[in-house]
Design goal:
The protein is built from five helices and 21 strands.
Amino acid sequence: MKFYYYLLLVSVLLLCANCNEINPKGEDEVRDFVYAWNNLHTPLKAANLKYEYLDVVEYFGAELTKEQIQLDKQQLFATYPDLSLSIDTNSLQIEKEGKDYLVSFVRKATLNGERATFPTFLSVLHKNSEFKILREGLQQDTVSTTKLQQLFPTKESLNATYNKAPRLYGDFNGDGISEYAFVKLPTINAPATKTTDAICEGGCVSSILFSNPDIAPITVKDAYNYTIENVKDLNGDFADEVGFFSITPTSKTLYIFDATTGSLLTEPVMINTAVHKNLKLIDILKKTGPKKITVTESIQDNGRWFLKSRVVGLE
């Protein structure tokens, strides 16, 4: 009888000793989940990058909701549509952490002929027969100094974008439900002066993001300082338009976007603020009829600047 008790005790101890090991089937499932997650990182599929995350996630050091992460992914590919991200399959390692899995791997980025590698990790939870991401980030002390480093956010940039940026409320897709828009500015290496524009990391590209991830981000080139306005429904599609003022030391340029399509309703409207000072939005943009607006801008002729208005039909 003692022999059987001894055998049972040994079996229990062996079972406990192996409780933190990953069975081959479980490891294969985690691998498949990570590869599927990476395959969603494309311009066409990034809008779906929400369902792989828990409601609140530690994302590159910042605490973000899954909707904010989805917006960040969409904005990444709106800014860099030619970006390619892949996983070095030989580098992928999985460790069991209680009920979670710590997955570490080397991520390969390619953009405009430049290549770089980034040691990356995901903390993955298996719950209700589904895998969900708890944490995502770069491994410590292995950060690359390549220019492609700008592809990955920092805690400071994420907090500045999602927690501090002013919000512009409106119905930007015409579904009768209010959402908000906000702007993600580029990282500025050298600020603007009275005579020079700012110098930005990776180019001065600002992005208009929306709380509804079904509305695609809108990028504005050569923009590093701004104000944003809800200019209401101008084209009769029952959705509010977004007015974005790009501000430089000597000018401000109004971009009028149809948020549902991301397209401009008219060519950008530039005001030379060194000559035409203190103009407000109402002086620059007026709705003058059904699907018709009048815009006023600074025009140069024979070395002189003057204001000129034009009527724009909106189809």
